[in-house]
Amino acid sequence: MRVVIVDDEKSARGILRLFLKDHSDVEIVGEASDGQQAHDLCEELKPDVIFLDIQMPVLTGLEMLDVLEDPPWVIFTTAYDEFAVQAFEKNAVDYLLKPFNKDRMAQSLVRVRERIETSRAENAAQTQKVAKELEQRKVLERIPVKIRGKIHVVQVRNLVLAEAEGDYVMLNTFDGRYLKEITMKYLEKHLPADEFCRIHRSSIVRIGEVQSIEPIPGSSSGQMVVLKSGIKVRASADGLRRLKKALGN
Description:
Elements: E1 2-6, H1 10-20, E2 27-32, H2 35-45, E3 49-52, H3 61-67, E4 73-78, H4 82-91, E5 94-97, H5 102-115, H6 120-135, E6 142-147, E7 150-155, E8 159-165, E9 168-173, E10 176-180, H7 184-190, E11 196-200, E12 203-206, E13 210-215, E14 223-227, E15 232-235, H8 237-247
Parallel strand pairs: 1-2, 1-3, 3-4, 4-5
Antiparallel strand pairs: 6-7, 8-9, 8-12, 9-10, 11-12, 13-14, 14-15
Helix pairs in contact: 2-3, 3-6, 4-6
């Protein structure tokens, strides 16, 4: 069983190394102290199991899972609250609530041994579901995107406009444009409601970047939203009502 340990605390990684020494079928093939390192290690080494912390610098454990292709089995090591633990229990192989002891970790290994023969495709769906369910209760602050094999984190504070492009969304920011496999429905639900408004089924704009609302040339009733950057975005009737309410008009 090839294992990667991911935790930003050196002492926590050391405890896991010590506990895992008692298991002859376990080979620790790598360690990482943040989500970006973890992503790169997993892409390179293809471990069977990750012991994964959640709150880490660069990328959180959940953000890393969101962009990791073909993820291995995941055992969370977390000091998360009870609500999150319940979500893990339904979907992950196991969770270890810090502080945990050697016997509790051994139980996790028993569980993962029972499942390790199952297909990676089933595991990928399961682990990504964990990440998505936990993210459902959060207001988005960061959106990880993959660019030529590397992860770039889009800060929501820099997001100006999100536009649907097929199964993807183009994230227009103050410093560039990034394509992300995500739904408009998810963004509408999780972007800060006091900062963003869905003005069309295919467009969400930052309210503070709206410069004007103008008629579409050649249209008898259509209107568009003009952003401070000069970008023009078509708006639906319902979208305009929502935007005008948000603007206090």
